[in-house]
Amino acid sequence: MAHARRHVLPALLILLAGFWAYHNSFGAVFLFDDHRHIVHHAEALRLQRAREPTGAR
Question: Looking at the chain, which runs of residues are DSSP E strands?
Fold first, then answer.
């Protein structure tokens, strides 16, 4: 079990680091006043999810 944990922890840290970097870049884009593009992208994602059958997830 300790062996498996040794592999899971770095993977989790990498995932968290990537998530943090993604959110930071997202915030930077907001600072550069590109709201419309982000709103459009979020709306497109929301519509795409709405179109998917609920059993997909």
Answer: none
Residue 53 to residue 28: CA distance in whole angstroms: 33
Q: 55: which 2 tokens?
A: 């059993």
Tell which wins on pLDDT, 17 or 53: 17
Give 54's DSSP letter: G
52 vs 31: CA distance, rounded Å? 32
Please give the average per-residue pLDDT across 31-42, as a whole number: 66
Mean pLDDT score, 42-47? 84
CA angle 32, 35, 39 (to 5 degrees): 150
Rounded (10°) angle between helices 35-51 and 2-31: 130
- Lookup: tokens for 14: 């990498």
